[in-house]
Each structure stands twice: as structure tokens, then as C-alpha cells.
Amino acid sequence: MHVYIYDSFVNEKKNNSIVAKIETRITDLGLSGKIIRLNIVNSIFNAIENEIKKGAKTIIAVGGDKIFNQTVNAVVKLSKLSLNNKIPVGFIPVGKKNIFIANILGIEDTEMACDILSARMIKRVNLGKINDLFFVSNISVNTKGTIIEIDQSYTMEIFENGLISVINLPNKKLELIIKTKKTNNSSLLFKNLQIVNKKSDIIVDNAFNISSPVKIKTAKEKIDLIVGKKRKF
Amino acid sequence: MFNKENNSTIKNAETIIGPSIKVKGNFHGQGNMIIEGIVEGNIKTTGFLLVGDKSKITANVEAKNAKIAGVINGNIKIQEFLEIKASAKIFGDIEVANISIEKGAIINGKVTMIKEGLSQNVKEK
């Protein structure tokens, strides 16, 4: 059974037509399932836990990058509880701002997202871990005021404004990339990294912010994602 | 900044430290390494090390091969070949199997030739 987790903003009136299109396309493709509309009272973790117990075979996040990340986190954490360790996660992006993760998964638009679910190409993906949260793609933070400690053996300070990114590479490695405007970029591979920035938050998977200090490492856990042919990994 | 020859090496580097970066501590790697910034501590790699002309290093340095164009305050151990560019300023002892020094480079320290591939201080007979 397919379970569709709708982000709360998907239920807004302005999204009625796109939701109608998604549901029509899903029905046409024979992928109908249960729809769970998130709101203030129901948590995504409990909702997915209940559906897995009832026999859900696929969980699909419908909405933005944030709901995708939350779905991945819930499914991975439930896998660790041995509920089912290989439930694939799909994604149907809603809204023009939520194209970051979709782009990585090879999803260009809503219609294509439904077709990709139908094709059901599954890729087992390594995850990164930031504190207790899993991330699929990247972490970013401003260089200003940031101190990085790597593998508990050395620290890095950056003297120019720019952006620090941590990229989750497909080969189970994490890469630190520092892009500044005036000078050459810096990059290196690492196992463990700590970021401290008292002024700026850290952005996870382009979806939400958390405050520092944070510890980043490769996760032991993996996740099955439903991906398109144009995926970026 | 690096010329075309050096840029081709940068593409293969696993670690690149740009000019706006300061590294403190034991900076160890296994692949090729490019350093254009500031390093205080120790640098060690089993690959190639390129120290750019703007870089300032206060550290002991160990690598398989190296090209140095910046300032190094510390001892240097290179297993195979060390190329010292005209802009380099080295204040420390050097142990190396093969060396080339461009006119204009400054070296204040003892240079010891060792057998290629040996990291220990082995003098040629």
C-alpha cells in the first residue's frame, strides 16, 4: 500500500488545482493509497509508524524539501526499530520553491514525480548525520564567524565571506567545500566535523535551520529512495 | 597564484586549502594536497603536496613529493622529489631524496639527502 504524507501547506486553497492533478495522475497510474494530511496535532513519526504497522509498502512525501527530510528521518528511525528496514521513500514536490531535493532525485515536475513513482526505480542511498538528524544531500552555513573542527585533529577559520557546504557523496564520504567570492575554493574529505557559529544557523538539506554547535558524520544507516533517470547521483 | 601547470594538479587534489583559510592542528591526508592559506601545526600526506606562493606554514611537513612556493617555518621530509620555487622561503631542515631549487629561493637550514622512498633519516653512502 502507498501512503502519501501531505505537508500542511499542501492543503492550502492555492494548491487545490495541483493536488487535484496529483491525485488524478496517481489514480490513473494505479498508485492510489492512503493520504495523511499533517497538521498541528499529528506528528509525522507517529503517522508513519502507524502506517508501517498496518503494512505500508511505500511512503511518499508530498510537499517541500522539509517534509521529504522529515519523512526520511522517520523511516530510517523506524527501520532501526526493526519495523521494516527497506521501505522506499518517494517524493512529489509541490510549489516552485521546493525544487532542491526534487532536482537531486531527478524529478522535474509534479507529473514526472508521479511517473517516477510508477516506474519505481529504487536506489539505496547513504545518509549523512547532523547531531541526531539524518540528511540526504547537504549542510550549509555562512563562513562569517564559523569555526570548523575536523576529525578532532585540526580546526579551520575562514577570513572571507562565503558559504561552507558539506556534501553527502554517493561513495559514503562527506566533502567539505568552502566557496568564497574573491579567492579559490577549498575542499577536503572528512569523517567527523564540528561546526560552531554563534551568529548564523546551519541549513540542513535546504529545508530547515538548526543552531550550532553541530557534529556531522556519515551515518551507518541507508535509505531506499525512488528516483528518476535524471537523478544527480 | 598557480600557473596552468599547477592548475592541472589542483584538479587531482583531494584536499585544497584556499588563501582565505587558516588551519591549526595536525593536518593529515592521504591524497594530493594543495595549500594556499595559513597552516599552524603539522602537515602530513602520502601524496603530492603543493604549497602556493601566498601560503604561510608554521609546521613540520611530510609528503611523498612536494612543490613549495610559499613560506615554511618548520622541518620538511620528502620521500621522493622536492621542487623549491623562486618565491619559496624555508626556515628549517630538509630531508629529501631528490631536490631542485630555483634561483631566488631562500633556505635557512640543513639539507640532507636520503634514499628514495624512505621516510627515516637515511643518509646516502
Question: What are its keywords?
Answer:
heterodimer; A: 233 residues; alpha+beta; six-stranded antiparallel sheet; 16 strands; B: 125 residues; mainly beta; 13-stranded parallel sheet; 13 strands; globular; disordered N terminus; disordered C terminus
Report on this structure.
Chain A has 233 residues and is an alpha+beta fold. Chain A is 24% helix and 39% strand. In chain A, a hairpin with a 3-residue loop joins strand 14 (202-204) and strand 15. In chain A, helix 1 (16-28) runs parallel beside helix 5 (110-119) and helix 2 (44-53) packs across helix 3. Chain A is globular and about 55 Å long. The model of chain A has no long low-confidence stretch (mean pLDDT 92). Chain B is 6% helix and 54% strand. Chain B is built from one helix and 13 strands, in the order αβββββββββββββ. In chain B, strands 1, 2, 3, 4, 5, 6, 7, 8, 9, 10, 11, 12 and 13 form a 13-stranded parallel β-sheet that branches. The termini of chain B are far apart. The model of chain B is unreliable at 1-10 and 121-125 (pLDDT under 50). The chains are: A alpha+beta (233), B mainly beta (125). Chain A binds chain B through residues 153-160, 162, 178, 180, 182-189, and chain B through 10, 14-29, 36-37, 41. Strand 9 (154-158) of chain A pairs antiparallel with strand 2 (21-29) of chain B, so a sheet runs across the interface.
